């Protein structure tokens, strides 16, 4: 795509250069004619026009290069995004064929190692795609995506990549690696999936306190380390988590996400002992629905400061796979009367529900109180992280 702001001065310089060059040529012909009749003529008008034509020529050359570089740069960036999305599709298709190797994995193995001066954090990013494909769930293709580092919040490292969603379209997925991931090169870590409530956003961008709260709890030694995974919330509705609570069938096992994370990072095998769910405020109903609908996949779920459809979620828990029991934390600040009321109503509805719903282990936390809402949210996130870390298997 050519930049219009560069094309306009390019055309102006080209037209000006042509006009000056023609003027200089005309003056040169006049001087030759005058010399034939041994008449004296002024050379300065010709030299000025010739110099102006040369300046215009230099400007035309420079602007042409800038315009071409701008066009190729945009095409390169667009192509990079398209290649990343296409590579995910190609890798998924290749993984489904027996004996085939995903193209993205081949490219990563052939890529040169990063510079040693980048330190331990960069080492974690470059080694993120070395996990064994055997950790992927049965029946799902092992897809190793390239995750690029986008920051270092909470003392860890935040990475991002495009991963195919349940609808088959690429969506952004962010992964936060705890500081221990770089230090313990042979350890495998449990995983917590963070649910977002805003379409097209990830939970870490929606509620930054999540990563900071988990990082602070890790630094104080209150919790065991785990990996945070934040998939982008789907579009099509203004409130994805309300839709999920009303339609529990929407909380299906995202096989592609689980397989990609298991193949790209050092994680414990996906399952109820090593995977959990977390949601804050608008994302809380999603986390509660995930834990209640699939306790055979998510061993624990923590919902912070949420508002819930108790009847819909109780039905979700009742339709959970037989023989499974959900573990759920519903946390709200002491001064959040509406949040605590919604949590207690959900707890009561689950106890009175049929089948697996009545077997759910539901805790209600109402002891957090602080000076500001932001500090309360930070403490609630720490509490949720502690619950998840205690419930899931420790890194090994």
Q: How would you sum up this structure, described in words?
A:
- The protein is of the alpha/beta class and 396 residues long.
- It is 49% helix and 14% strand.
- The chain has helices spanning 4-36, 44-96, 103-110, 119-126, 179-183, 203-206, 209-219, 240-246, 255-264, 284-293, 310-318, 337-351, 356-359, 373-391, and strands at 148-151, 157-164, 170-177, 191-195, 227-231, 275-280, 300-304, 327-333, 361-368.
- A 9-stranded mixed beta sheet has the order 1-2-3-5-4-6-7-8-9, with helices on both faces.
- α10 (284-293) links the parallel β6 and β7 (300-304).
- α1 (4-36) packs antiparallel against α2 and α10 (284-293) packs parallel to α11 (310-318).
- The protein is elongated and about 115 Å long.
In short:
The protein has 396 residues and is α/β, with parallel strands linked by helices.
Q: Stretches where pLDDT falls below 50 for ≥5 residues?
A: 71-82, 91-142
Summed up, the helix count is: 14
Structural class: alpha/beta
Q: In what range is the share of β-strand residues?
A: 5-15%
Strand/helix succession: HHHHEEEHEHHEHHEHEHEHHEH
pLDDT averaged over residues: 77
The biggest beta sheet, please? 9 strands, mixed
